[in-house]
Amino acid sequence: MTTIARIETFLVAPRWLFVRVETASGIVGWGEATCEGRSETVRTAVHELAELLTGRDALRIEDHWQVMTKGAFYRGGPILASAVAGLDQALWDIAGKHFGAPVHQLLGGPVRDRIRVYGWVGGDDPSEVREHIAAQVEAGLTAVKMNASGRMSRLASVSELDGVVARVAAAREVLGPDRDVAVDLHGRFTLANARRVAPLLEPYRPMFLEEPVVPENSHLIGEVVRSTTVPVSTGERLYSRQDFLPVLQAGIAVAQPDLSHAGGITEVRKIATLAETYDVQLAPHCPLGPIALAACLQLGFATPNFLIQEQSLGIHYNLGADVLDYCLDKTPLTFVDGHVERLTGPGLGIEIDEAAVRAADKAGTVWRSPVWRHPDGSYAEW
Ligand SMILES: [Mg+2]
C-alpha cells in the first residue's frame, strides 16, 4: 500500500527544514522544504498541505503537485512553492523506493555518469578569496562561486568597482585557465552598477554572473545581458515556469531554480525543459542540506541541459551541522575530482539518519537573513 499515512517536519541545524512522508506499508520518503530565514512559516504551510495528501496514493505525484500548487485559490511565491517542493521530493523518494529505482531512472534514465559540482568561497563579504579558493582546489573542486562584493552603494564608487575587479582577478590567478569562477552579485547591485561592472569582469572570463538585479526587477535583466559578453544567470528567487519565462526571453544563459523553492523535482524538471528551448543551461541553486542536494543531482542525471551543481559543504552558513552529518552513508555525496558519481540507490539515493534528525529538531534552530544598512542609515540589499 502506497497510501500516505503520516507527514512530519523537522527544523534542524544549521537552517534546514526536512519533510518525512510515510506510507501505510512503511515506505519513508524524505524531502527538503528549506526556505532560508522563513522555514518556520514554510513548516506551517507543509502541515496545511498535508491535509490534501494524507490518505491518498503517494504515487500520483503530478496530481498531488497540481492540487497542492493550485488547490487553495491563492497561489505562488516562495512559501507555498517551498512547502510543495519538500513534499514533492519526498513523494519522488517514495516512488523510487517503491519501484526499486533511483529517481533519475524514473525521469527517463541517466544522460551522464557524473555531475560537476562547485563550492562557495569568500563568505558574505569576500575578503579572503585567495585562501578559500586554494582550499577548494586542494579538495579537488574545479569550480567555485564567490560574492562580487559586500554591501554596495547605489552608484558604486571607484574603489568599490576596483574592489570587485581585484577580487575576481585574484580568483582567476589562483584558479588558472582550466578551472571556473562564478560571480554572484546577489541582488546587491542596481542596474547601473551591474551594467558598469560586468564589462570590467570580461577579461577574467567568469563562468557566469549571477543575480545582477533583484528578482522584482527581472524586467531589467535583459539590459544586463546586452551590456556584456559574460553569461548572465538568475533564478534562485523565481518559483515557477511562469516566473522563469521572462528571464529566458531576456537572454539569460544559465537558469538557477532551487529544487526546494520552486515546486520540487516536478516543477524544476519542467523549468529545465522550458530552458532547453531557449538554449539555456541549468545550474540549480543549492546552498542547502543533503536532501535538497540529492534531489538536484537526481534531476541532473536525467537532464540534458544541465551545467553544474552548487553544493554547500563547508559553506559559511553551515554552523552546527554540515551536509553529510545527517547521512548514514556519506559515500553517495562524496566528491571525486570535483564530481559526484551517479547515485545508484533507490529514490533520492541517500539514507537519512533519522535519529540524528529527530534529535536536531528537538534541539531547535533559528536562522535569519542579515539586515544590512548603508552608511546613511537606509536599507541595503544583502
Ligand atoms: Mg545567489
TrEMBL record:
One BP annotation, GO: amino acid catabolic process
Database matches in SMART domains: MR_MLE
GO terms assigned for molecular function: lyase activity
Keywords associated with the record: Lyase
Name of a matching Pfam family: MR_MLE_C
Annotated InterPro entries: DgoD-like, Enolase-like_C_sf, Enolase-like_N, Enolase_C-like, Mandel_Rmase/mucon_lact_enz_CS, Mandelate_racemase_C, Mandelate_racemase_N_dom
Mandelate racemase/muconate lactonizing enzyme C-terminal domain residues: 126-231
PANTHER family: D-GALACTONATE DEHYDRATASE, D-GALACTONATE DEHYDRATASE-RELATED
Official protein name in the record: Galactonate dehydratase
Species of provenance: Nonomuraea maritima
Taxonomic lineage: Bacteria, Bacillati, Actinomycetota, Actinomycetes, Streptosporangiales
